[in-house]
Predict the 3D structure of the following.
Amino acid sequence: MHLSKSTKPYDCVTASYLLNFLILHEGLLKSCFKSSLSMNAFQPDMDVSADPVEKNTLAVTKYLLKSLEEEVLHAEKSLLEAAASFPMYGRLHCITGALHRLPLMNMTLAAEWKEMVEKLIRLSYKISDVVSPVVQSSSPEGLIPMDTDFDTSERLQSILLEIQPCDTNDYFTEAKVLKEPCRLESVDETAESSCFEMKGEKQQTCDVTAQMVLVCCWRSMKEISLLLGKLCQLLPLQTLLGSDALITVEQVKGIGDYFKHHLLKSRHRGAFELAYAGFVKLTEVLSRCNNESLHKLPEQWLYNVLEEIKTQDPSSKLCATRRSAGIPFYIQALLASEPKKGKTGLLKITMKELIDLAAPSNVPSSTIPQVHALNILRALFRDNRLGENIIPYVADGVRAAILGFTSSVWAVRNSSTLLFSTLITRIFGVKRGKDENSKKNRMTGREFFTRFPDLYQFLLSQLELVASTVDGKTGELKLHPSLFLLLLILSKLYPSPMDGTCSALSMAPFVPLILRCGHSPVYRSRDLAGRALVAFVMTNLVPQAVSSLMVGLPDSTDPCIQQNAVHGTLLQVFYLLRSYLDSRHKANSDFEHDMTKIITCVEAKLWLAKRQNPCLVTRATYLDILVLLNNYLGKSKVKGTEFLMFLEKIRTVVSNSELATGDYHSTAVPGLAQYLQSLTKLFISVYLLTADSGIPSSHSVAKEKGADSCLSVAQLLCSDFCEVRLSVLDATLKWLSQVNSKHGEEGEKRLLCLLSGLEEMLLRVALKEKQPECFCKVLEALYCMDFHNVLPKIEVTINMNPRDFLQWVMDISDTSESIEIQSVSLKLASKLLIHLVQNGQEDMKRLIKEWVDLVTSCCGDEQETDLRLAAAEVLVSVTPIFLISQKLFLGLPDTILLWKCIVQLLQSEEQIIRDTVAGVIRLAQSQENILRKTELEYCVVNAEMALDLTFSILCKMLQQWQQTDAGIAILLEWLLEKEDLEELETTVMVGNAYLFDKGQVNFWAEELKKTQQLKKHLLLLMPVVHTSPWSQQKLHRLARIASDQAKLVTRRLRELPPTPEFSKTGEFTKLFIQNEKISVCLQILSLLGVWNDASLEQEKFERPASDGLHHA
């Protein structure tokens, strides 16, 4: 019962489960009567013949109802006090849960239940009246209502005045302390007895935030809705009209009116969404009801709300903002209850009415009904329960959304946009990746227009209207609102092999219109027009279409050039050519001939890629086309003279560009970054082709392919534009990956030619780079390189010795705010450290210690997943040399500290981290198999089993290192190094301001399991331990620490108030776990002869029994 009034939502869930468990026990009422829990609520001799479960359920419900009535009295006086100490929703949740146990088919206490149901319904309405002013407010998220109590109102006024001047939302999260204590004013002795759980809380101050008030209100509204829905759902339908019916027709109608009122008036999304959940239960019951008057209620409610939407009454209280609030949910619930296998008459009538309302109208007063209709349509198209029954109306929905987007009213355009987005998802499916243009969310044009034939003529007519406004010769800027939506739909289509077989759905009429839309003054619209054109041009006609488009481009001598039209045409060529090169049409014998024609047409307009073209945006797009063609020529290994001449001209474009001469435009020139990025991609493509194929070149830039190409790459790494540097670094990483994957192949030599000399430049760039993404790529490139080549050049290039460079990299990992930079610098530092240690570098102790501390800090549960994953990879990489080597390179304390990091990561919440760090155990076992000369050199280790193997391998290594005595001392310190026990709180702040505080970060780790496994392996190690005088002294010190901690934990445990096992606090759990660790430590010390058995038994005797948690 104490849990049922907690302000923590999960506490009342626990209370409900426990009550359901107790209800099944026959002796529940007698136990409550003996403990004087509530003599008036629980009557053990209520009805001897009644079913025990029914009797217990009724008694518990009565008790909860009585407690709830008193909480409602407090809420009526002060919502602030209710939010802090009497939240109501916990009791409601427990009542709803208890009704699940009600034996409906064999009820013996019908009269009592009838009275109980009437009280529950009446009290639910009363609670709703208390909390509805908050959830129905126009801005419920930060509302603190003005209470009727004068003192509370005065305090509220001071809070509101305090937050007004700064006009921030700090009050939403920061607690406002009501200094007057929260008292429970009992009206009589019975009330005092029934509210036993308030003992000890009379002096508690109420820390209340607006968040707590709002949560109290909307959760109460939620539980009311679920309770009323459960009452209608659980009670037998055949008794609805009888004299002994537990619920009457009038009550059912009243519940329906209640749901209607709150769904149509509530503003808070949580409130009307959860009212919807209860209303669905009611409508499902009514749809199966044999009583005609009840069966017709959903239909009547639906007609009434549609009529209220259509009336356009200015006095209507329907919410026109917040996406129509609960109105769509109300209609969804009414339609979802209709049988799916029937005629779905309600759905047909509703969709017809809504589509008519959503259509554009010249009447100003029709705006609000149109907004409601669009929002309701959006909700219905999103509802998966309507299934395929909603598909026939998709075309009408698309038509309404596109036409609504042309409205002059912002609210209509906004609702149309939301509806359109929903329809795109409904038609093409949920996006499964980051790529907006993935074929997973597309379909062929033929399939699209076959499924939605009505859209063919509509989209064609709308596209004609839009295209007529795009390419006007007057130069006047005209933007049609529907242009983007139309092109977005068409860009989701792709060509079909069956295109052209059906004249009724021919794609040909769309092509000239899309071409004209490509001249739009809006960049995004031109891009979409280029993508959309691909679906309407058959693959075998692409060469002809590309040639035609290229011929239509202007010459350099033309007096007036419209760059928007040029850009749109080039985008269309680019997307057509990319689709053509990716298609399977390459196997066609005419493919090479077609490509020759395309290259000839592209070559004729090559001036668009040169400085003769003043527009950098169109130059960039033309360069992208050249990249496509250059990559094709490189892969196809074509050796024709015309192709070689074309490649030579591409090289000329690069050599005469700003990348080679260095005379860049001002950064304020539009499209400069895009142009330089495209030019960089072309440069990379050209010189990669030169290195791979060895194509000869007479041009000076490529005469000496090795030196000059690398010099150009080095120059680009020093570019002032981060886009250029980033493109070069991406290419460098790709080349390094190819080099590392090739062994002795001819291609490796050519790639090494490109990469030679880059070590010095990357080192220089690393010290100067300020852009985070580029800096991360530089570090990643250095990490991928061979340190035998990098380290000799460090001192000459950047005036650092290897130790200083290692220190610099570790400082970056320690100070950087970027997780990506921290991760890659940690891996770089680890690889460098391994290299230096293996090559006998001297004076490394301080750096090794810093590195160990760095790795340890990156393994904490509070760190980001990517950083801990990088730490796991580092631990796997250092395993052979630092963790399982016969020689202790790091020293015993630091080596065991790394093993501790492995244990910590094996208990990480993320599966990927556990699986990665389990590689340490795989390597260790593989090496052991190799030493034993077994046939199995590689073994698979399950991450869940790796923890036990970790302790086993560590104990074996301690024996190999002959460090068992010192190792045991360090391992025992693991058990005693928890946070300072003096700071552990002994009480739980139930009513604090941190309403959703999750507390512990890691919910996967099992400290008790880890402790028991460590104990098992330490016990196995005991027979071979030989303690030295030094270790004896250290073990005695540990014994004293353990003894002191044992006394402290024992005292703290005794100070905790007695509570049932299921109500144990987080502080108890921490103390109990620490108690178990101390016990294991003392037991091991006793076996070592450091701690005598009498003291151990005394410690065990003094510690309170806590077997319940241990078994749990």
Remarks:
- The beta strands are 176-178, 206-208, 443-444, 493-494.
- The chain is about 65% helix and 0% strand.
- The radius of gyration is 38 Å.
- Residues 155-205, 696-711, 983-993, 1096-1112 have pLDDT under 50 and may be disordered.
